[in-house]
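Moderator note: this is an archived Q&A kept for reference. The question asked for a predicted structure of one protein chain; the sequence and the answer are reproduced below.
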Amino acid sequence: MIRRQHLNTLWLCVPFLLVGCGGDKMGELQAYVQSVLARPPGPIEPLPEIKPVDTFVYEPGDRRDPFVPDAQSEPEEEIAEAGGLAPDPNRRKEELESSPLDSLRMVGTLDLGNERWGLIRTKEGILHRVRVGNYLGQNNGQIISIGNDAIQLTEIVSDAPGQWRERAATLALTQ
């Protein structure tokens, strides 16, 4: 009930506050607006003429169709050897994969139920929670274990186009 009384009092005060917005200069402003509105409108420029475009029919003959990509213009894809190791190009990238591994800091762990989470701080100071299976760093690093003092991960790095190898990496707890 008290809140409703305060609200009613506020609504009664609003018109008095708005009266204070007027003043001697309002008359000048209104006169200027009236003078601008009294001016005759100027002529409107006509729209520019639209010139017709000549049509062209493409007759390819023995030339290639420009709307179909050819083998030379297609980017080379890095193809792994049959049964070989390669990162999944269709996998959705995680947020921490945009940061270099050396810019990430492990600052602790968190046990929730039967699952252990690692706490990672970026160089911007943002704290992230990660678990086994998440990806870190720019070399397709996947977390394989989270200990009390370090996070172990396996990175997939390129030796040459189409050739990949695994590399172990560790993100140690920092104080």
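Archived answer notes: The CA atoms of residues 97 and 137 lie 4 Å apart.
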